[in-house]
Amino acid sequence: MIALKEWHVSHSRNVPGRLDSLKARLSMLDRKGEDTGLTDDE
């Protein structure tokens, strides 16, 4: 049970920051896709 709690703490740390980062990346890809199209890697 301790291992699960430690896993949860380590994986839920800074969730709002991660979400903001992903939203910014998604927005950038949306703009790029509208202008030039995206590659398979993007």
UniProtKB/TrEMBL annotation:
Keywords: Endonuclease, Exonuclease, Hydrolase, Nuclease. GO terms for molecular function: endonuclease activity; exonuclease activity. It comes from the Eukaryota. This is Endonuclease/exonuclease/phosphatase family protein. It comes from Trifolium medium.
